[in-house]
UniProtKB/TrEMBL annotation:
Coiled coil: none annotated. One of its GO terms (cellular component) is membrane. One of its GO terms (molecular function) is G protein-coupled receptor activity. It holds the Pfam family TAS2R. This is Taste receptor type 2. The chain crosses the membrane at residues 6-28, 49-72, 78-107, 128-151, 177-205, 226-249. It is found in: Membrane. InterPro entries: TAS2R. Belongs to the G-protein coupled receptor T2R family. The keyword Membrane applies. Keywords: G-protein coupled receptor, Membrane, Receptor, Sensory transduction, Taste, Transducer, Transmembrane, Transmembrane helix. Its main location: membrane. It comes from Eleutherodactylus coqui (Puerto Rican coqui).
Length: 296
């Protein structure tokens, strides 16, 4: 029992740190929008990503708190369905918006002369808001499909369990349930990986060409390329870790609380990395923690 409390405390700390980092990104961009009356497309996508991730951390904290302090509420099927829909909607939305952000960087940085790249490069700024809205719709459909099948599964499981005739029912249904869940994140994940690999390959090739030129060894462009390369490589690695842990937790074969900690950690680290990459956001994060420390 003590270990459960320790793991829950660790999970809460991770979620609160991640929530704070994403809230700082949202507040900073809101202040920029108020000052400039407009935002760049990348800032709009980044703000949307920060909102979805902040809601994701919040959606992890609330059900765990209810399970710890109000366990009788978790016996309500309707409430569980609502929590599941919100969790999956935020999960899918976060993944889709991260994919849109990666595609945006890929299209703006990569200079391939294919017709598709030229088409996207000239229209990506106007397409981004529509892509975000379409991703939210797809996320809602995916989450409703998963929860609806899960509700139907629970009814079938209850009826079969009462007769005692299982016949590998649970294993087959859980596998189908997992693939319904995976169908919602496979498309954005494949697009995310493809865009990231294209971008990383382009940055590697371009960086090597620039380093071969002695006069550019210390150029700002080279340093910016190194920074972008590290950022996108970290983004890819943490996103793979996040989806791997989420898939394992949904399979039901591992300790759920441990996997939730591993599941939330990549998002927290990437959110902190985004804040640390900006001097303005870094100052806001330090001031926030100082204020919290003094108030305590």
């Amino acid at each position: 029992m003590m270990m459960i409390y320790v793991l829950t405390a660790v999970l809460y700390v991770i979620c609160l740190v991640g929530l704070t980092a994403n809230l700082i990104i949202v507040v900073a961009n809101a202040m920029k929008w108020k000052r400039l009356k407009s935002l760049q497309t990348s800032d709009k996508i980044l703000t949307s990503l920060a909102i979805s991730r902040g809601l994701y951390f919040f959606d992890i904290i609330i059900p765990n708190s209810m399970f710890q302090f109000l366990p009788w509420l978790m016996e309500n099927d309707i409430l569980l369905s609502i929590i599941s829909i919100l969790y999956l909607f935020v999960f899918y939305s976060s993944l889709w918006i991260a994919t849109i952000l990666c595609v945006f960087y890929c299209v703006r940085i990569v200079t391939y002369n294919y017709k598709l790249f030229i088409f996207l490069r000239t229209r990506i700024s106007t397409m981004a808001p529509w892509l975000i809205q379409a991703s939210l719709l797809f996320s809602l459909i995916s989450s409703l499909a998963f929860v609806w099948y899960g509700y139907d599964f629970n009814k079938q499981f209850a009826s079969i369990n009462s007769t005692g005739n299982m016949t590998d029912f649970s294993e087959g249904i859980m596998e189908t349930w997992f693939w319904i869940f995976a169908a919602g994140y496979f498309p954005p994940f494949i697009i995310f990986c493809a865009a990231n690999f294209l971008l990383i390959h382009f940055l590697l090739m371009h960086t090597r060409r620039m380093r071969s030129n002695v006069s550019h060894n210390q150029s700002p462009n080279l340093q910016s390329h190194f920074s972008a390369l590290k950022s996108m490589s970290l983004f890819l690695l943490l996103q793979i870790m996040f989806l791997t842990c989420t898939s394992l937790s949904m399979s039901g074969k591992f300790i759920f609380l441990n996997l939730q900690i591993l599941e939330c950690s990549p998002l927290m680290f990437h959110s902190l990395y985004m804040v640390a990459s900006s001097s303005e956001l870094r100052k806001m994060l330090i001031l926030t923690f100082l204020c919290l420390f003094r108030s305590s």
